[in-house]
Amino acid sequence: MNRPNAQDMKVLANMMKSTIGFDLQDYKTVLVRTRLQKVALKHNMNLDEFLDYVNAKGTSLPQNVMMDIINKIVTFETYFFREDKHIKSLVDMVKELIDGGKNSVRIWSAGASFGQEPYSILMAIHSILGQYYYNKVTVVATDYSDYPLQRVKSGKYSKNEIGRCTTGWQHILNKYVVDMGDDVYKINLPDITNRLFTSQHLLVSEKDNIGLFDIIFCKNVMIYMDTETREKVLTVISKHMSHDTKLFVGMSESLHYNRAKNTVHRDEWTTYYKI
Q1: Which fold has domain 84-274?
Q2: Do the Cβ atoms of 111 and 204 come closer than 8 Å?
Q3: pLDDT by residue (tens digit) across 62-88?
Q4: pTM (two decimals)
């Protein structure tokens, strides 16, 4: 029998939706099979044994096994200065807030993946606005798992990852990259331990309290969720927004939410939301 079968996929889909709100329906079975084989091997089982085990446990699957499955199936697609119109808009907002008398600006990179987004934000602010503005900014980078966040904390990338950068920004990225040898390149930003913080955060859970933010990037995250889960995520995000917080979503995303509670705004560069 070819596994995963329809029942296996249903169990996996329910587990991923309840844990991180991820919609598995667009994933091809053959792709899931290939990725799960690696997880099964890690747990000393063949694929059939592993899927039988997952089916038997369901949503009561041990946390470490569940995270192994999610980390293998979910694709962490990201690169430096992705959708750079949002970066340009954010830089303008930071300057306006600080020039207007705000002493500190808090930015949330929700779904930070391996860290290219929060590092791009900080590099843009430091390079374009300078040290004075940079010193007044903190970025909180979150993701559902500690697996990608370990990369954020290390700030280390391969040559291929450093080369994946939106056109026109590579010269800024190169200013902050140090070649450590053995295909390891480290992002070198001043006082980074006081500028960038990481935290595990399930966007579908209201239990986490990471405070209020001035600007939130939740980009290319909800695209993998159904409408019900998107609404749940936006309810959680709204808990971290003041009346003037700006929310950015991916260029190919829009807010499927109670439209009476969100307004669309446009600046010189792009579109953002207030909830």
Answers
A1: Rossmann fold (3.40.50)
A2: no
A3: 988 988 998 888 876 789 999 999 999
A4: 0.87
CA–CA separation, 212 and 93 (whole Å): 16
Domain segments of the chain as ranges: 6-73, 84-274
Name the residue type at position 255. Answer: L
Mean pLDDT, 10 residues at a time, over the chain (275 residues)?
87 86 80 92 95 90 89 83 95 97 96 95 98 98 88 95 96 97 97 93 77 94 81 87 90 61 68 71
Q: Taking the alpha carbons of 200, 201, 202, 205 in that order, is the dihedral positive or negative?
A: positive
Q: Is the peptide bond before 4 cis (omega within 30 degrees of 0)?
A: yes
